[in-house]
Amino acid sequence: MQRLDKILSSAGAGTRKELRAAIRAGRVTVNGSVCRDESAKFDETSAQILLDGEPVELLRPALILLNKPAGYLTAADDPRQKTVMDLIPARYRRFGVMPVGRLDKDTEGLLLLTNDGNLAHRIISPKHGVWKTYYCEHDGEATAADVEAFAKGLLLPDGLSCLPAVLLPLGFGRSAVRLQEGKFHQVKRMFEAVGKKVLYLKRISMGPLVLPEDLAPGAYRKLTAEELAALKNEQPKRNED
Ligand code: URA
């Protein structure tokens, strides 16, 4: 429970002084009734608040699923380049929403953004080993030996060892890859280790979340309650069945 003026100012609806004046003037409706008392307390997670008849989006845990296009940095901020934050409304930045993990500038696909630090940590922590699936186009064909090398756990030329991963050749220089880690350029480096160059990379799933087919590159939507519940209940296994 929080004071009405505090709830509104956390939501970026104005300064405390402006908001107090608006409340006293009867311009604020909470759960269907005008409230003229700035110190009245409401549940900030469920209150429906209108200012001048317009709904105020409150600072609540936000989980956004973005179809990241190529050409955008996965960063909260950058002085020179476009970032994924430029693809979502500015108010989310004020609410502390940040990308969860990272996709390279030229990688497309499913990227989560949230202000729920605990959930973000759970998704990216190697301890939890959430499975991620990528669609990949590369030069040459993935071979049975490559499949085996991925399954055993690759040792990269720089000495980095990878957990066992699933490589599924799709023919015509295309593959799907499933892995539980998110090290820097990991998929590209794994293919490089078996002599192939990645030409196109797109993340198509992360744990129980699947990139919706109707979400255009650059478009986003909030997670549904079902998706959020599935993500919170996710119990990744160390080895695939
Ligand atoms: N692996 C990569 O090489 N790049 C990405 O963006 C994600 C996984």
Present as ligands are: uracil
Task: Give me the secondary-structure category.
Answer: alpha+beta
Question: Ranges with pLDDT <50 over ≥5 residues?
Answer: none
The largest β sheet comes out as: 9 strands, mixed
Distance between the termini: 46 Å
Query: What is the H/E order?
Result: EHHEEEEEEHEEHEHEEHEEEH
Q: What is the helix fraction of residues, given as a range?
A: 10-25%
Number of helices: 7
**How many strands in all?**
15
**What would you call the shape?**
elongated
**Average pLDDT reading:** 92
Strand content: 25-35%
| Rg computed from alpha carbons, rounded to a whole number of angstroms | 22 Å
Set out the fold topology.
Layout: E1 2-3, H1 4-10, H2 16-24, E2 28-30, E3 33-34, E4 41-42, E5 49-51, E6 54-55, E7 63-68, H3 90-94, E8 98-99, E9 108-114, H4 117-124, E10 132-138, H5 144-152, E11 166-171, E12 174-179, H6 186-193, E13 198-206, E14 209-210, E15 220-222, H7 225-233
Parallel strand pairs: 9-13
Antiparallel strand pairs: 1-4, 2-3, 2-5, 5-6, 7-9, 7-15, 8-9, 10-12, 10-13, 11-12, 13-14
Helix pairs in contact: 1-2
Descriptive tags:
about 240 residues, alpha+beta, 9-stranded mixed sheet, 4-stranded antiparallel sheet, about 25% helix, binds uracil
Structural summary, described in words:
- It is a single chain.
- By secondary structure, the chain is α+β, with helices and mostly antiparallel strands.
- The protein is 23% helix and 26% strand.
- The chain contains 7 helices and 15 strands.
- The protein has helices spanning 4-10, 16-24, 90-94, 117-124, 144-152, 186-193, 225-233, and strands at residues 2-3, 28-30, 33-34, 41-42, 49-51, 54-55, 63-68, 98-99, 108-114, 132-138, 166-171, 174-179, 198-206, 209-210, 220-222.
- The strands form 3 sheets. Strands 7, 8, 9, 10, 11, 12, 13, 14 and 15 form a 9-stranded mixed β-sheet that branches.
- α1 (4-10) crosses α2 (16-24).
- The radius of gyration is 22 Å and the shape is elongated.
- The structure holds uracil (URA).
- Uracil binds next to α6.
